[in-house]
Amino acid sequence: MFAKLALQSLLDRKGSVVLSLMAMTVSIFVLLGVEHIRHQTKENFSNTVSGVDLVVGARTGSLNLLLYSIFRIGAPTNNISWETYEAIASNAKVKWAVPLSLGDSHKGFRVLGTTGDYFDYFSYANQQHLNFAKGQAFHQVFDVVLGAQVAKKLGYQLGDKLALAHGIAATSFSLHDDRPFTVVGILAPTGTPVDQTLHVSLQGLEAIHIDWQQGVKMPGSTITQAELEKAKLQPKSVTALILGLESKMTTFRVQRAINQYKQEPLLAILPGVALSELWQMMGVIENTLLLVSALVFIAACLGVSAMLLSSIRERQHEIQLLRVIGAPAYFLFFLIELEALFIALLSCVLGAGLLSVCLVFLQNYLLGHFGLHIGSNFLTGNNLSLMLAVICASVLVAIIPALSGYRQARIVKR
Q1: 308-339, pLDDT tens digit by residue?
Q2: 3-state secondary structure 348-392
Q3: How far apart (Å, rounded) are the C-alpha atoms in residues 357 and 51?
Q4: Taking all residues of the chain, what is their mean pLDDT, rounded to a whole number?
Q5: Residue 376 has what pLDDT?
Q6: Which of 377, 391, 403, 334 is nearest to 43 (CA)?
Q7: What pLDDT, on the 0 to 100 scale, is given for residue 284?
Q8: Could you give the percent of the chain with pLDDT greater than 70?
Q9: Please, which residues have CB within 8 angstroms of residue 307's CB and are 6 or more apart in sequence?
Q10: Residue 199: strand pairing partners
Q11: Which of 184, 195, 346, 375 has the highest CB neighbour number within 10 Å of its CB?
Q12: pLDDT score, position 100
């Protein structure tokens, strides 16, 4: 009966209640959305690479090296010579070494030149290896393996031909269209930058640049694609290396040796340590977003409190009637608190439902445009605790109008 009376009272003032409900729903949507995206972004970055002990590149900042080599963000300051790659790979403490070469693109997607070992040793999340949804790894010079999102967005299938573009701009007029690549494999989705990448052999990258100088194609080339298939092409340099070591105990020793390499300036980083640095830098932005979300929610709570407080004057007849039938003054106090609780609960349900719908419909957009795999299941421990805190805060803020109603009820009795 108590709950029924509270619901009926809210329905009688549905105009102001709906506005308060909308404000609180939007605030909860923003609060839960920011927290969920923040958590999922961290998880995506952490899951991008697994099982890699060291990332090696030309000497630069550790974050810059991590971002361009693993996340395909930014550009390298310099390359590593092929002789240096061979020297590092031949180290007895190195179990495997996979070279990475960046610099070209295809319709806005990055192209990665590497070796067949990439598909054997590169892993993500909890040591999950790359799997093929269709086809196989590249074996010929002009073979290309597509990431899941590349194939989906551009509509490529096995056997299709495509031309790479010189540089990493979304729109390029310097195309390697005289030497097209053939799609031989499509990787299964990983939720990492691998999905946004085209994978070719190092020999393939060397072949399309064999008659280019300073980023410009030289006229008069007579080398055919068939001749390049048979030629023994070897790159002069690569962008970065990812290493797996024989023993974790030697990680810092190998890292120090690479950082002190005399032939050319190199930098070796531990992916986990570099990620920690990234989160420290991003901490200010995260806290700012959470603060803004919290302020939006506080404003909504104060709006609900103001609505309940202003309704006291409109409820004189209701208060008199309750007192006549013998309801104590504290009855009105708990009635107003229950109304605030109902508004908070319904706002949580509506805010969570709205967020769930948005995540379902925007999932592909976020993955395609930002490379973020944001799951639709946001009911984590953090978010549930957040909703509980929201409900408690709403009840606490409603104490002010509840006390006002309590005093008004005592005055009416006198």
Answers
A1: 666 666 665 665 566 555 556 566 677 777 87
A2: HHHHHHHHHHHHHHHHHHHHHHHCCCCCCCCCCHHHHHHHHHHHH
A3: 35
A4: 79
A5: 64
A6: 377
A7: 78
A8: 75
A9: 16, 17, 19, 20
A10: 112, 145
A11: 195
A12: 94
Q: Which amino acid is at 50?
A: S
Q: Give me the DSSP letters along 189-228.
A: P-SSGGGGEEEEEHHHHHHHTTTEETTEEPS-----HHHH
| The token pair that represents 174 in the structure block | 């310097």
Q: What is the CA radius of gyration of the chain?
A: 30
Q: So what's the pLDDT on residue 411? A: 60
Amino acid 118 reads Y
Q: Where are the domains of the chain?
A: 2-45+281-413, 48-277
C-alpha distance across the termini of the chain, in Å: 26
Q: Which two tokens stand for residue 157?
A: 């299938």
Full DSSP string of 122-137 = -EETTTEEP-EEEE--
Number of residues assigned to the chain: 414
Contacts of 319 (CB under 8 A, 6+ apart): 332, 405, 408, 409, 412
Cβ atoms 175, 88 nearer than 8 A: no
Please name which of 65, 78, 143, 82 lies closest in space to residue 111, comparing C-alpha atoms: 143
Residues with Cβ within 8 Å of 405's Cβ and at least 6 positions away in sequence, in order, are 312, 315, 319, 332, 333, 335, 336
pLDDT digits (tens, 9 = 90+) for 31-80: 888 878 777 777 777 777 778 899 999 998 888 898 888 888 888 888 99
Crossing angle between the packed helical segments 271-314 and 381-397, to the nearest 10 degrees: 30
What pLDDT, in 10s, does the model give residues 93-123? 999 999 999 988 888 889 999 999 999 999 8
> Whose CA is closest to 329, among 338, 320, 317?
320
User: Pairing between strand 54-58 and 240-245?
Assistant: antiparallel
